[in-house]
Amino acid sequence: MAEAARSVIARVAAVMRAIGDHEPDGASTTGIARTAGLARPTVHRMVTALAAEGFVDRHESGRWALGPETFLLGSMAAERYDITSSAGDILRDLARTTGESAFLSARRGDETVCIASEEGSFPLRSHVLHIGLRMPLGVASAGLVILAHLPERERAEYLGRADLGGWGECHSPNNIAERVEQVLVQGYSVNPGLLVEGSWGLGAAVFDRRDAPAWALSLTGVAGRFDDARRPVLGEQLLRAAHVLTSRLR
């Protein structure tokens, strides 16, 4: 019985996340099914039931979007989990002083989700990250720096179960483990265009009161802005900003 309940909850969560991934335009039933990895008839029954409870809405176009109950619950949870107000001036300062786009990501289980951003002044930008984007730990600079600062046993367990084959050979467990070692030496992570050619990123971990890496600050931009001479400078700026934000949260 417990296993069945977990299965139902996992499917509902997958459907809600799939809808959230398509905000604000909404998602079709077929699109939700594809993203969630579920059969279309199953998804149709689930979104219909969720709509009856107010957790999803249906646009006139027939596409599904998050509903008012989701907003109300999110507003109440924000008091515990939303750190964007504390990080706002830090993101703005990073974007202003570096000229690159600055982001704040939060750990959610085996993933990171981007929750805030600030555009830099440099006219050429990397468009890999955006608010709401979820990525596995170890992928992109935010997920890599969070993974690197987890306890060694937890990190090894994750790399043993994670299915990152779709992200290319550069994200094999062995390759990620090598990059983790680099993070532990220099303190910040580097993504040298592994997701999109020519788009680089740096990340620094932000810790909660239990000293766990719960968030990450990151900078992204075009490769020419992240050369050998500038990367350490940007890395130090990120580390200082992450230390300030960690201190505030404590």
Automatic annotation (TrEMBL):
Keywords: DNA-binding, Transcription, Transcription regulation
Nuclease keyword on record: no
Pfam families according to UniProt: HTH_IclR, IclR_C
GO function term, MF aspect, one: DNA binding
Domain of life of the native organism: Bacteria
Domain IclR-ED: 69-250
HTH iclR-type domain boundaries: 6-68
InterPro entries: GAF-like_dom_sf, HTH_MetabolicPath_Reg, Tscrpt_reg_IclR_C, Tscrpt_reg_IclR_N, WH-like_DNA-bd_sf, WH_DNA-bd_sf
Name the UniProt record assigns to this protein: DNA-binding IclR family transcriptional regulator
The organism's taxonomic lineage, starting at the top: Bacteria, Bacillati, Actinomycetota, Actinomycetes, Mycobacteriales
